[in-house]
Amino acid sequence: TEQRGLLRAINGRDLPVDETVVTYGDAKRLVWTVYWVDGTFTTSSTTIRLLEFKAGVTNGHSAVVSISTPINATLDNARLRLETLLTAIPDISAGLARAGTPPAEGP
After folding, report:
1. I need a labelling partner for 100 at 20 to 30 A (CA). Which of 58, 62, 76, 80 fits?
2. What residues form DSSP beta bridges with 63?
């Protein structure tokens, strides 16, 4: 397993991701993981703790986002697939915020 931090430009914003290459036999997968806490994306464990404390006090929301793809050709090709997927989602932060909000009650 190989791991490193990256900063990727997605929809005009820099998105930090932890990149891991997982090997199982002859198969390899590229995994990107990022933490989202009340609209902030981070991979820093210190920042996560501080933001989660604040979110706990203010009833905020948090999530772990993890996506992966097989590495069939090159690592750069796999990275491009993940970037394409994330670019297809116009506002990930807004979607995560909506997912953490209870539905409105009817009349």
Report:
1. 80
2. 36
